[in-house]
Amino acid sequence: MKHLFIATLLSASASFAQERLVPYVKPIIGTDRMGHTYPGATVPFGSVQLSPETDTIPYEVDGHYNKDVYKYCAGYQYQDKAIVGFSHTHFSGTGHSDLGDFLIMPTAGKLLLNPGTADHPETGFRSPFSHSTEVAEADYYKVKLEKYNILAELTATTRVGVHQYTFPKSDDAHIVLDAVYGIYNYPDKNVWTYIRVENDTLITGYRQTSGWARTRTVYFAMTLSKPFSSYGFQNGSKKEVYHGFWGKFDQRKNFPEIAGTQIRAYFDFKTEEGEKIKVKFAISPVSTTNALANLRVETPRWNFDEIKNNGQAMWEQELSKIQITADKETKENFYTSMYHAFINPTVYMDGNGAYRGQDQNDYIATTFTNYTTFSLWDTHRALHPLLNIIQPKRNADMVSSMLAHYDQSAEHLLPVWSNSANENWCMIGYHAVSVIADAVIKGNFRVGAERALDACIATARHGSYDGLEYYMKQGYVPEDKNSSSVSKTLEYAYDDWCIAQMAKRLNRKDVYAEFMKRSENYKNVFDASCGYMRPRMSNGTFKTDFDVLNTDEPGFIEGNAWNYSLYVPHDPAGLIALMGGEKRFTAHLDSLFTMQLPDSFFAKTEDITRDGIIGNYVHGNEPSHHLAYLYNWTSTPWKTQERVRMILKKMYRPTPDGLGGNDDCGQMSAWYILSTLGFYPVAPGSDQYSLGSPAMASATLNLENGKTLTITAKNQGDKNVYVQKVVLNGKQLDHNYITHTEIMNGGELVFYMSSKH
């Protein structure tokens, strides 16, 4: 059966090719509330993510951070009225950004080599567009560039972006290659660019940037379906010391190479009415030779529709791994979420296995596919556990990639937030430990478990990393020594528990004892006098002037004391006891969903608005993602069922602002998928998934081991959110969880639903 693909990317007016979709569901497209997802062309986990860019605003204005640049984490804003061009690399749903490599723009008429401005698009090569001409499908995007009457179409393979431009009749048609453009335009972000014209249809080169990833090089090979009649360059680079020696040549016109920091190229054509010019643009982390090999292997022919159909078939294969029966909106949300969950992490190696390592040397991956784009503070919570179920081979390769990162790292640390052979050091914790432990505990890894454990131990003992020196000595991170101290203490404690679980599995008793003791460090930042986790100073005293609701409060990151006080995913029972027992704990948990926050709560938050919050529960900030499931450790598990179904309805909608925050490389979407199926990994590193309330009538998980798990929710509906009993393969469960082994063994899981708890 064909499967619905819903990309939460554009507008309800956009359309899909109906022959590749479930015919009884009308597709709807939207964006997250920040605009940090994008429309465009990519295959599952693809290196190339080809998408339109809608503005070129700078990162700084008058030497100060330009807050509007945050809207352009993915390069595309639905409200914008013009398209600047189409670039080949993007992040999906992140709270910070980079990339936007190698922008291509087709034009007709007078040659313009600057993008112009939003207020005066006529001064540059950008073009107005209408959402009515946009089409967004799996691995396909189409739009009319109204300024030039050019129809632009995009598709992609894993490493090649493919463009098809239908031109009007013109004696002055051009394709502009802009190597100046980049997402988050830092001053001096472009370190160096080299472009080489090999012949009248082939161009190669590279660009090195220093942005979020400070040493990132992308090589390319670009080929055109029609020879160009002439070409040239614009070099806006600062004067170089030896530039004068190149004065022997006129490098601006029909000269075969150019180098500098601010380079734009153009290629000229004469076109007939309706003539199509196609561009294949391959990238590589290693060399132009490999980029050209990627191009020839993945796109040997010029058949645009064939490439598109192959890419869409790849999406059909991935999306068919879970088949659900549900109402229209749930299906739309569910398959949108599956699409988002299968964008990242991204393949980071050539077709021959070559990739750039953390030490900036080149390697060949012979036993695994190398991945990058690890937003681990976000994705360790649900995305990687989801992949362990539905994409175990890929997740095992991701673990191998993390260990390769460790081996090549100058600091000898596992990744924190890594991208393109760089460590970005974004956010806190050492959550690669969680991903590795989850894979080890669930038997889904390809490298030696002992080696993996040793890498985790070394990372957790690395005193120079983000307050760990104090954490190891004092049992907590002191706020006067290191910021976000409470959040770090709590997250380190969870990661330490993950290490202990691996050590137990491998019978490393000394390691198990060490890290189980460390996993209790969460108790050291709990202030019994107020009942909250609280910043503690190096002299042992708690910080004064403490506001439990302030999200800008010292001691916390992307959360406040009210919700972070519940962040002990590895020991809910211990947390309940610490907070004074079930009655007080439940009251605290209840208040999270029912209280009303003052407007001052939002004064200093860049990525959270009131419509992304339920009470004081901030679903868009990941430390809250397990909280609704904590009622399963009390006598009121029905509240988990009630809260989960409420969150599913309020935080996910098939509309242009359908997500309650950034998707964060698939974490928000993974939460939706697992919660809709009826279970969630409260503590990855455990083999247990906490039971919730399934939001579909039935689902079939087609597992890689050849088995299937069928999930049925009897009498499921909007009012019937409460679970009366759960039966697995004919036997009623007497606990509020299901194990990984039980899922992977397949069979039938039946929830009996009711309107009464």
Question: Can you walk through the features of this model?
Answer:
This protein is of the alpha+beta class. It has a 9-stranded antiparallel beta sheet with strand order 9-10-11-12-20-16-15-14-18. A 6-stranded mixed beta sheet has the order 21-36-37-41-38-39. Among the domains are: 32-317, Beta-galactosidase, Chain A, domain 5; 366-462, Glutathione S-transferase Yfyf (Class Pi), Chain A, domain 2, CATH 1.20.1050.60; 467-565, alpha-1,2-mannosidases domains (Glycosyl hydrolase family fold), CATH 1.20.1610.10. Strand 23 (354-356) and strand 24 (362-364) form a beta hairpin. The chain has 17 helices and 41 strands. The chain is globular.
Question: In short, what is this structure?
Answer:
24% of the residues lie in helices and 23% in strands.
> Biggest sheet: strands, sense, closure?
9 strands, antiparallel
CATH class of the domain at 32-317: Mainly Beta
Shape: globular
Query: Which structural class do the helices and strands define?
Result: alpha+beta
Helix content: 10-25%
CATH-defined topology of the domain at 32-317: Beta-galactosidase, Chain A, domain 5
Examine the secondary-structure arrangement and name the CATH architecture of the domain at 32-317: Distorted Sandwich
| DSSP, total strands | 41
Mean pLDDT score, rounded? 93
Query: How many helix segments?
Result: 17
Name its key features:
alpha+beta; Glutathione S-transferase Yfyf (Class Pi), Chain A, domain 2; Glycosyl hydrolase family fold; six-stranded mixed sheet; globular; 757 residues; 41 strands
